[in-house]
Write a structure and sequence with these properties.
Layout: H1 16-24, H2 29-53, H3 69-77, H4 80-83, E1 107-111, H5 116-132, E2 136-139, H6 162-169, E3 174-175, H7 176-179, E4 188-194, H8 196-199, H9 210-215, E5 217-223, E6 240-241, H10 242-247, H11 251-256, E7 277-282, E8 286-287, H12 300-304, H13 313-327, E9 338-343, H14 357-360, H15 364-382, E10 388-393, H16 398-406, H17 417-421, H18 425-435, E11 439-443, H19 447-459, E12 463-467
Parallel strand pairs: 1-2, 1-7, 2-3, 4-5, 6-8, 9-10, 9-11, 11-12
Helix pairs in contact: 1-2, 13-18, 18-19
This protein binds guanosine-5'-triphosphate and 2-acetamido-2-deoxy-beta-D-glucopyranose (NAG) (2 copies).
């Protein structure tokens, strides 16, 4: 069943030109030559990788539906054939996704529908569920929420270094753009599991996602049984667990739970959950053992997946350039050690009720106290005297930013970022800056702060603090 329809094209990765424009603003020509060479190399190797990936349409390595013991041994030794994405599709991306699936490969996919960091965590959960079910994760794109609904999506692999992730975890991971042509106007039917309707009691339907529109998918959902919830019948928590959902990847649990599917919205087709392209509507609220598990040291989603999701090199480079410029250094000078700060404001006023925001959000002196603690601990434990503090925030109040400047803190200048690089780049660059310091101070309740904290702890062996807020004195300690 198929239908014609049109959709927006994805935002392309940072182009040679746009990067060059950013770099040029303060660059000397010697520096420029170096950067151009570096960027061209990155870009060329990207092209080379893509071309190589689809070089052959008859790949030899196979991944059986039921992997044998030998398969997992191969995976552990890091056999590059096993990781090569071209071994998990038939060839170049096709108009209909099914035309590109290998009959001997089992896949898993899911969708997003929240703020960008929440969406990152949702894809992390998808990859982890792929690991424990021995299926190849097929990752869709990121779609905008807080940054404006009309902004085109950006591919997962234009933000995160997928080849590096594959190598680090020794598992194949592919993107939807590897499978279905992003320019295709074909609509595909697919049967998926409806987690959302069984995990919460406010909405009597599967979780919607803008991804379905961009991928051209018309889904028929099968509602999961009520017992998938971590806390049975408890309306105030939406958690399900990885292993509960993993059971449905296998025939015994799947076949015992095939209730009547909901017809697909566009073409009114009813399908049971697909066995080859296993799919779930929404995996944000999935944990191993407790809600908000990403906060916990044992979080398997962090330990087995998210810690290996590094930024693409071009984004790391941008974060350094923006930090250097904020501090007053040349683009290609080494970025000195700094303490990153993330202050999450703006729509977090929703947690403040009638309280004035100046009482609800932590004031600058309270943040400065945490910054001082990080500074002191870095000096005491590493002998590092860190001179620079770099603030990132979604705050729009100019006098608040003035107060930040009065502390002697620096901030990336995003006045031309959207114009030069696209609407995604203020948040992407800020997230990369937050993860690049030897210290970090974040905002409680913000997942963007949470992931930055874990990255600084794991990647930089850094020192971190989280600021509490919500009423005057909330961060007293
Ligand atoms: N450029 C920029 N954008 C930010 C910053 N902080 C928040 N935002 C925007 O606000 C969004 C917040 O949503 P998430 O990324 O999911 O993180 P969160 O703080 O948990 O927020 P909620 O999802 O709304 O609970 C980000 O993705 C950005 O779009 C910041 O420091 N810099
Ligand atoms: C959808 O299909 C069912 C079964 O074929 C049919 O009974 C129903 O009328 C259809 N609904 C719509 C809105 O087309
Ligand atoms: C802007 O920030 C300043 C300094 O933090 C604060 O005093 C003022 O109330 C804020 N204005 C608004 C409209 O939130």
């Amino acid at each position: 069943m198929s239908a014609k329809y049109t959709r927006a094209r994805s935002q392309s990765p940072v182009s040679d030109d746009s990067l060059d424009t950013v770099y040029r603003v303060a660059a000397k020509s010697r520096r420029r030559a170096y950067i151009n060479a570096a960027i061209s190399l990155t870009f060329l190797s990207f092209i080379a990788l893509v071309s190589f990936s689809f070089w052959t349409s008859s790949p030899t390595a196979s991944r059986a539906a039921e992997p044998s013991h030998d398969d997992s041994t191969n995976l552990r030794t890091g056999n590059s054939d096993v990781l090569d994405p071209s071994n998990y599709v038939l060839g170049a991306p096709t108009e209909h996704f099914r035309d590109n699936l290998r009959p001997d490969v089992q896949y898993i996919t899911s969708w997003i529908s929240a703020g960008w960091t929440n969406d990152v965590m949702t894809y992390v959960n998808l990859i982890y569920l792929g690991i424990i079910t021995d299926r190849v994760p097929v990752i869709p794109m990121f779609t905008p929420s807080h940054i404006g609904g009309s902004v085109p999506p950006i591919a997962f692999g234009d933000v995160f270094d997928v080849p590096r992730l594959r190598n680090a975890i020794n598992k194949p991971i592919i993107e939807w753009r590897d499978v279905k042509d992003p320019a295709s106007n074909q609509l595909d039917n697919l049967g998926c599991w409806n987690v959302w309707e069984s995990s919460q009691y406010q909405e009597a339907h599967p979780r919607g996602s803008p991804v379905l529109y961009h991928l051209g998918l018309d889904i028929s959902y099968t509602k999961m049984p009520a017992w998938i919830k971590l806390y049975q019948d408890f309306e105030h928590d939406y958690s399900t667990t990885f292993w509960t959902l993993a059971r449905f990847a296998y025939p015994e649990t799947r076949n015992a739970n095939l209730v009547t599917p909901l017809p697909s919205p566009a073409t009114n087709v009813s399908l049971p959950p697909d066995e080859q392209m296993l799919c779930y509507d929404y995996l944000y609220y999935v944990c191993a053992q407790q809600p908000n598990e990403f906060e916990a040291d044992f979080s398997p989603a962090w330990r087995f997946v998210a810690q290996y999701m590094h930024w693409v090199p071009s984004l790391e480079r941008l974060a350094n350039v923006y930090t250097n410029r904020a501090i007053g250094l040349g683009d290609d000078e080494p970025t000195p050690p700094y303490i990153g700060v993330h202050v999450r404001h703006y729509d977090f006023d929703r947690y403040c009720g009638d309280m004035p925001l100046t009482d609800c959000f932590a004031p600058i002196p309270v943040i400065a106290r945490r910054v001082r603690e990080v500074k002191d601990e870095l000096l005491a434990t590493k002998g590092l005297d860190v001179k620079y503090v770099v603030m990132t925030s979604d705050e729009r109040n100019a006098s608040w930013w003035q107060e930040v400047a009065e502390q002697g803190w620096f901030a990336p200048d995003h006045s031309r970022t959207k114009e030069l690089l696209g609407d995604w780049y203020p948040v992407l660059i800020d997230a990369a800056i937050q993860s690049g310091g030897v210290g970090f101070v974040g905002t409680e309740m913000s997942t963007m702060s949470l992931l930055a904290r874990r990255r600084v702890e794991t990647w930089q062996n850094g020192v971190t603090r989280t600021v509490k807020w919500g009423h005057p004195g909330a961060d007293d300690h």
